[in-house]
Prior knowledge:
Helix content is 33%, strand content 25%. By secondary structure, the protein is of the alpha+beta class. Belongs to the type II topoisomerase GyrB family. It holds the Pfam family HATPase_c.
Amino acid sequence: MLSFKDAVRKRPGMYFGDIDHNAVNHVIYELVANVVDLFLAGRATTLKVDVSECEIIVIDDGPGFPFPVEDSAHNLVERYLTHHHDKPTADDHAPHIHVLGGGLGLAAVNAVSEKLTIESSNGAWRWRQVFGKGDVLAPLESFRYDGPSGSSIKFTLDPSVFHNRLPDFFQLRKAMFELAHLYSGLIVEFDGERYVSKQGLMELAYLMWSGPKWAFNPKMFRFKGQTEDVGFEVAAIGDGGSPPCYKSWVNGCETEEHGAHVNGLRQALNYAGWAPDIALISIVMHDPKFAGPVKSRFCNRRVKSLIAEALADPLKMFKSKSEDN
């Protein structure tokens, strides 16, 4: 029976899809999603991605990888990089998001990398360890350190697996730009550009809106809500009279066929008597069972009711005020 490492290396298409530019992006998204998880947990503020023909680097200012401080302690990072887990996340953290699907984990990224170097710090210690082709290539280096925490993952994909494919730069840029708007406040740096959005989905909705950009103060609505296990953001713009164009996400995955979250938003809009041109909704489920990639349609009756009830009064008040103005 093939090990996970050998299975990924022999049949990479089963894990990353067709081995083309999008598959390279998929590998990058696996690392990017982990940084967004840290941001949602309040443990990181910045994601930086640098791409060249030679290597790819993903950097964050989070708390650092859980490398051992004592030489005799178990190295969890080695396990994360060399063993596949059958849980949504290796350390059971939640919430967990995805970027354009994904969800394979660090072991899969290591399996298809010719060389993968992690440099990480918790503010008191700094570590460096080299992996590649699914294995540990060098022992852990550690030393005392007095400086900021954070991590850097620098890797080169194995040409025997990816045949020297390069990332789809424009699709990658689009994904990074969208991330900054799905998670307002997250600082995303990509190829020398810096994206950060204070208004989140509202700014994205405005960019998607086909109404006259010169229009003075078009109708714009934004709302963020949070319960114990569900966080959500809604944005809507315009008043053209046609049925709204909806776009939706669950834990970072676009739900092209929408589902319960959009049905809840639609119900609240109908109750308020408003048909915006564009309506966006993104929800983050904290329940670990939603840590895997959500399919194209989201089914959850409780979320439909939660969204409809949370938006009913704010939308009604917004509609009333906009009519008064």
